[in-house]
Amino acid sequence: MSPKLPRAERPARAKPKLSERRFKQFALVTTLLGLIVMAAGMNFLITEGAFLLFLILFVAGAALASASVFVEIRPPTPEEEAAAARRGRRGRRSRARLPAPEEAAPLPPARDPITVTLYTRKSCPACREARQILEGWRDQYGIEVWEEDVDASPDLQEQWSDWVPVGIAKGEELFRLSLVPEVVEPRLRDLVKRS
């Protein structure tokens, strides 16, 4: 009979390893089954008042739902990577990747700075957000931000009150109601190139 090793000296048991796809399937199935078992326990408690049966089913369901904690994701095999690469070339499950903003090469500042007129009002969170985004592009695109409060003038209020924030540069409307960087930045970049 071999002597028992203290707990700290025992070798750790290896967790079962699954591919990422199989792991996701396993986690989904065990979670759903665990919730079903827990619901059955709740049903017994409500309909028959069987607290002990409820407790047993509830604990079993919770253990089943958390079973994915005891499984690891293994790295893909070379065959799986090759199959994924082939799927990508055929276009299945592949998506066009837009370049991240930091990957885009910054343009040299324009000779004359472009003034972006930002029509805002004081009680407008979207206006503050638009101003912050434009200020962040100041050095990258060589722009100046000129802010106009639409409530300060009846003419501006009549024209822009329902649309703030509104950004206009060189007579072109860049945005209204909200500044979506993915939409506005290409427009601004094009405007800088043309100037």
Backbone shape: elongated
The major beta sheet can be summarized as: 4 strands, mixed
Report the uncertain regions: 89-96
Strand content: 5-15%
Strand order of the largest sheet: 4-3-5-6
Summary tags:
Glutaredoxin; elongated; alpha/beta; 195 residues
Structure explained in plain terms:
The chain is built from seven helices and six strands. Helix 1 runs antiparallel to helix 2. The longest helix is centred in the first third of the chain and has 29 residues. The chain has two domains: 74 residues; 81 residues, Glutaredoxin (3-Layer(aba) Sandwich). With 195 residues, the protein is α/β, with parallel strands linked by helices. Strands 4-3-5-6 form a four-stranded mixed sheet. A two-stranded parallel ribbon has the order 1-2. About 4% of the residues have low confidence.
Architecture blueprint of SSEs:
Layout lengths: L16 E2 L1 H29 L2 H15 L6 E2 L4 H13 L23 E7 L4 H12 L1 H4 L1 E7 L4 H7 L5 E4 L2 E5 L4 H14 L1
Parallel strand pairs: 1-2, 3-4
Antiparallel strand pairs: 3-5, 5-6
Helix pairs in contact: 1-2
